[in-house]
Amino acid sequence: QQQVKQSPQSLIVQKGGISIINCAYENTAFDYFPWYQQFPGKGPALLIAIRPDVSEKKEGRFTISFNKSAKQFSLHIMDSQPGDSATYFCAATSTITNTGNQFYFGTGTSLTVIP
Amino acid sequence: DVKVTQSSRYLVKRTGEKVFLECVQDMDHENMFWYRQDPGLGLRLIYFSYDVKMKEKGDIPEGYSVSREKKERFSLILESASTNQTSMYLCASSFGGRTYEQYFGPGTRLTVT
After folding, report:
1. What integer is the mean pLDDT of A94-101?
2. Has residue A98 got a pLDDT over 80?
3. Which of A30, A73, A76, B36: CA 20 to 30 A from A3?
4. What's the CA gap between A109 and A87, in Å, rounded?
5. Which of B45, B47, B99, B104 to probe by mutation at the A interface, max A CB count within 10 Å?
6. CB-based contacts of A53: which residues, under 8 Å, 6+ apart?
């Protein structure tokens, strides 16, 4: 059973456009929602994260929007650049239980930004 | 900078061979993790360790074992490799109180023929 559902599986965006990746979860005990970015040949790296007490978090061109009632969160990449081409993973966990086997990744979105 | 290194970037093994994947971190992290990454399935946790000699099963531990004799080193062992274990294997580490901030190695692409 997939704890975090992510869509789309792949995404092609023109340079300068907005890339949007969506995730949904069911477990209301989750209280930390990070996004990881993975370039080809590299391991994933933490990009940005949000807690459910805020509805939005912005870091540069990357924004997480969080809808607690719908149990959904999304990553928006504004002014997408070819260098943003990577695989993006959403994730969810509980910082209270804080156990390593309750950290769940989505299935990933392969983003391609066309020049 | 946190550095997580994995012993091999690419590995080709035969069915039935015993395979060792090694991971070393240099940040004195308490937690270490082994994931498997497959297209369309994301990252799935195989095992994690929260201290030396301590381990917990993840979602897909079958066919794998782990060893952590030193804090900085976490090994994944495939006792008898099979073709369905062909995959990308990722190691990660984190501080004990921050399992939600994991640092990943570059991965090992294992092919079992």
Report:
1. 70
2. no
3. A76
4. 5
5. B99
6. none
